[in-house]
Amino acid sequence: MRKPIIAGNWKMNKSLSEAKSFAADTKNNVPTTDAVDSIICVPFPFLHALVEDTKGTDLKIAAQNMHFEESGAFTGEVSPAVLKDLGVTYVVLGHSERREMFNETDESVNKKAKAAFNYDLTPIICVGETLEQREANQTMDLVADQVTKALDGLTEDQVKQSVIAYEPIWAIGTGKTATSEQANDVCAHVRKTVASVVSNDAAEAVRIQYGGSVKPANIDELLQQSDIDGALVGGASLEADSFLKLVEAGK
Ligand SMILES: O=C[C@H](O)COP(=O)(O)O
Predict the structure, then answer these.
(1) Is-annotated flag, keyword Phosphoprotein (predicted)?
(2) Which residue among 64, 100, 172, 246 has the greatest number of ligand 1 atoms within 8 angstroms of its CB, and so is best to mutate?
């Protein structure tokens, strides 16, 4: 049985005081980590304060990106070593916004996934197709290719610990959710891909999230699907009440 994992991705939103107030309102009200992993993925400048504010609670703090090198001349970047040192536990890799606007590639996502494990960070690896690709019936091939490239060279154990987020780009921030059946079909294909490139055991263990206009009103139906183990949520994770409803649904 895979443990549900609900992650709120704040993207480039909130001030530090808003972030701290969100953490204060939610950290003691999320389900225990025995039942659900409850995570917020926050901008880099908030990581230190929020890790400190949530210590000893079941609310975990994630970064939204990182570099794959440990240190060096990479102006403006943040290393996995720094994330580990800060007490961060998860990192989002290859979000479509980073692929589209910041030159993230399958190759850099793969390097980052390997680096994450070198620093005990759990990667949340994002994959998903554009509307044009869906309409051209390329979704399954594209997603399988993204998954295969992201996981290349990881050990079976590392793949078992990984989280893969399937986010159809056309459903992000648009209010258009994939139907739960459409979402599950692609998540099942992701799992089948993991079985074929790694192993059946890895496919059984890997957790697969759906992302794209998830909200309290539709999360139950999505989580009832056979291959959806959680959600990566943007807009509906920004308010404490809404985030708490989402993590409750994971129970
Ligand atoms: O990382 C989260 C996704 O991009 C989904 O965003 P959304 O829930 O605002 O559609």
Answers:
(1) yes
(2) 172
Q: Which residues pair with 163 in a beta bridge?
A: 124, 207
- pTM, to two decimals: 0.97
Q: Report whether residue 213 contacts ligand 1, using a CB cutoff of 6 Å.
A: yes
Q: Under a CB-based contact definition with an 8 Å cutoff, are residues 208 and 167 in contact?
A: no
Q: 143-170: buried (b, 16+ CB within 10 Å) or exposed (e) per residue?
A: bbebbbbbbeebeeebbbbbbbbbbbbb
Per the CATH hierarchy, to which homologous superfamily does domain 5-250 belong? Aldolase class I (3.20.20.70)
ipTM over 0.85: yes
Residue of 178 and 10 predicted with greater confidence: 10
Query: How confident is the model over 59-76, as pLDDT tens digits?
Result: 999 999 999 999 999 999
State yes or no: is 95 an active-site residue. Answer: yes
Question: Which residues are paired to 9 by β-bridges?
Answer: 41
- Rounded CA-CA distance 164/146 in Å is 10
CB of 211 shorter than 6 A to ligand 1:
yes
Q: Which of 20, 61, 68 is nearest to 42 (CA)?
A: 61
Q: Of 246, 215, 210, 240, which is closest to residue 228 (Cα–Cα)?
A: 210
How far is the centre of ligand 1, averaged over its atoms, from the C-alpha of 239 (Å)?
14
